[in-house]
């Protein structure tokens, strides 16, 4: 059964997912079009194992979903509005001081 998470939890999950550059790259790639893990790994230049771990994190966060396609599994954004949210976040970040970095940029974590 699906339940709707409270707003704070949703934002925290989204933030944790975006805290990793590889997960950001995955989300941006899926914003363009659904993709298969092997193709994503090749496109992003990461190992399939590493990509699989990040996809699992994004799936657990509720940001991506799987779609069976024969013997393969395709990944896509869980909701098309996520693509719009990513675009909005990118333009908002571009509007701030780009030479500054986040003090927690090295913090790793998952949902």
TrEMBL record:
Residues of the HTH arsR-type domain: 3-100
SMART domains xref list: HTH_ARSR (SM00418)
A GO MF label: cadmium ion sensor activity
Signal peptide feature range: none
Keywords linked to the UniProt accession: Cadmium, DNA-binding, Metal-binding, Transcription, Transcription regulation
Gene Ontology biological process terms, A to Z: response to cadmium ion; response to lead ion
Entry keyword annotation includes DNA-binding: yes
Keyword Cytoplasm: no
Alphabetized NCBIfam families for the sequence: HTH_metalloreg
Listed PANTHER family: HTH-TYPE TRANSCRIPTIONAL REGULATOR CMTR (PTHR39168:SF2), TRANSCRIPTIONAL REGULATOR-RELATED (PTHR39168)
Subunit structure: Homodimer.
Function according to Swiss-Prot or TrEMBL: Metal-responsive transcriptional repressor for the cmt operon. Binding of cadmium or lead causes the repressor to dissociate from the DNA.
Descriptive protein name: HTH-type transcriptional regulator CmtR
The organism of origin for this protein: Streptomyces oceani
Taxonomic classification: Bacteria, Bacillati, Actinomycetota, Actinomycetes, Kitasatosporales
């Amino acid at each position: 059964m699906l339940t709707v998470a409270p707003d704070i939890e949703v934002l925290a999950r989204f933030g944790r997912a975006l805290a990793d550059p590889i997960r950001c790259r995955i989300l941006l790639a899926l914003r363009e079009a659904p993709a298969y893990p092997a193709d994503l790994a090749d496109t992003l230049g990461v190992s399939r194992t590493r990509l699989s771990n990040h996809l699992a994190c994004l799936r657990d966060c509720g940001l991506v979903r799987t779609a069976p396609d024969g013997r393969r599994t395709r990944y896509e954004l869980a909701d098309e509005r996520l693509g719009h949210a990513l675009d909005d976040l990118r333009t908002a970040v571009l509007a701030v001081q780009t030479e500054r970095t986040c003090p927690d940029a090295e913090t790793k974590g998952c949902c």
